[in-house]
Structure to design on (328 residues):
């Protein structure tokens, strides 16, 4: 009976071995592959191996045969290319909301997608980022609950906290639960946020997922946004500075020519620039006005200037005056 079952899964095991242990630089000889199958209790001969691999190829599982003195087989068609896996690994390493424990688990899982040989190579080439990692292991349960609620169009409840000077949790609203309509999750400024709508305050609000506890989907139906509040998440993120919300305004800027990369990175390549002279451009963008926006404008000194509307200019002046007074 065992032999019959082993034979039935032989194709699966051939594919599994070749995916994990081979690539174009490390093919596997027929005899080695037959020996590995034998260790699993799966009988195989050179003739049947050739037929099995032909069946796999016919079914779309591409296995390359290098015909030398001895046939060698390898798999090159993977879900991710090595450069793509490097990007994923770097992103996991750099993300502060992923705990050290989960970072290690993710690194091993992502590297495994490259097969055992290439996976070990890319793991050795990982640069450890000097990133302060979060310690909230419950974040993964929270993300799953949020995703489920969004898919099922249900509200969620949770408690929200900050840290005091001793790095102890201080719960907002004395630990009372927040009830929110979840609409999307956003990764920004090295943190993971829930974008939700609060029925009580009639506002779009952002919550850091690592500061949320006891996240639970409830039976209350999610309240769809009214027509005047429907928005594009990507557009919404462009308007934000540091995930701080505020009144939306159309703001006009004049920038130095060496600020083009900064402007395109922040507002996107579809921003309309108007050339003023050889060294300066103007443009208008919708932004949400907040202290973080004022700080962003000031960070570039004389290279960026807000020229309209007057109300925003006055708020920037007040912001600069407040900071100046602190140092007098």
């Amino acid at each position: 009976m065992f032999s019959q079952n082993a034979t039935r899964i032989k194709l699966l095991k051939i594919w599994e071995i070749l995916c994990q242990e081979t690539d174009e630089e490390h093919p596997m000889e027929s005899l080695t592959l037959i020996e590995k199958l034998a260790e699993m209790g799966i009988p195989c001969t050179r003739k049947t191996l050739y037929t099995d691999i032909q069946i796999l190829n016919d079914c779309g599982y591409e296995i390359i045969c290098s015909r030398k003195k001895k046939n060698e087989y390898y798999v090159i068609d993977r879900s991710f290319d090595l450069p793509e896996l490097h990007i994923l690994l770097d992103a996991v390493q750099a993300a502060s909301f992923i705990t050290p424990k989960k970072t290690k688990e993710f690194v091993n899982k992502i590297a495994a997608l490259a097969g055992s040989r290439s996976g070990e190579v890319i793991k050795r080439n990982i640069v450890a980022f000097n990133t302060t990692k979060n310690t909230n292991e419950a974040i993964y349960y929270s993300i799953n609950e949020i995703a489920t609620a969004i898919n099922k169009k249900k509200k969620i409840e949770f408690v929200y906290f900050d840290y005091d000077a001793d790095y102890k949790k201080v719960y907002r609203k004395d630990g009372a639960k927040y009830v929110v309509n979840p609409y999307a999750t956003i990764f920004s400024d090295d943190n993971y946020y829930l974008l939700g709508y609060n029925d009580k305050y009639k506002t779009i609000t952002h919550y850091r997922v690592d500061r949320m506890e006891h996240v639970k989907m409830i039976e209350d139906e999610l309240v769809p946004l009214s027509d005047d509040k429907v928005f594009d998440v990507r557009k919404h993120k462009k308007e934000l500075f540091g995930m701080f919300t505020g009144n939306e305004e159309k703001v006009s800027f004049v920038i130095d020519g060496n600020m083009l990369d900064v402007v395109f990175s922040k507002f996107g390549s579809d921003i309309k620039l108007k050339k003023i002279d050889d060294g300066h451009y103007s443009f208008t963008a919708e932004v949400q006005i907040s202290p973080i926006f004022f700080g962003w404008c000031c960070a570039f000194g004389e290279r960026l200037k807000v020229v309209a509307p007057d109300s925003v200019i006055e708020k920037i002046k007040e912001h600069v005056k407040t900071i100046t007074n602190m140092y007098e």
The longest strand covers residues 178-188. Residues 156-221 form one domain. The chain is about 40% helix and 25% strand.
